[in-house]
Design a protein that fits this description.
Layout: H1 19-28, H2 39-47, E1 53-58, E2 79-86, E3 92-98
Antiparallel strand pairs: 1-3, 2-3
């Protein structure tokens, strides 16, 4: 588990298990919307059809090599761009809806 700062302890929690069960459990706890982060975790939630929105932020640095964002094992997932923002520091952030037919 990642340490959670005290000031976020009431808003951040760690959960383990299949994504669909985590989402269902959180919904019964009154948390119908959750923030999912971390490459492997996001891949698992996408593959399970448990994400409605995906926000990608690009940093204007070409690395040339690195860890793939989604990897080859993720099924084809269609995204619909909803909003793109450009920040003064050069970051570009796009909010996508996960297309229903791909879920």
């Amino acid at each position: 588990p990642v340490p959670v700062p005290d000031h976020l302890a009431d808003r951040v929690a760690h959960r383990a298990g299949p994504p669909d069960r985590i989402v269902a459990r959180l919904a019964t706890e009154g948390r119908p919307r959750v923030y999912v982060d971390g490459g492997e975790t996001i891949r698992r939630f996408l593959a399970a059809g448990c994400l409605d929105t995906l926000i990608l932020t690009r940093v204007p640095i070409l690395l040339g090599d690195g860890i793939p964002l989604f990897g080859p094992d993720l099924p084809e997932t269609r995204l619909v761009a909803r909003e793109t923002r450009v920040f003064p520091n050069g970051l570009v952030q796009t909010r996508y809806a996960v297309a229903r037919e791909a879920r």
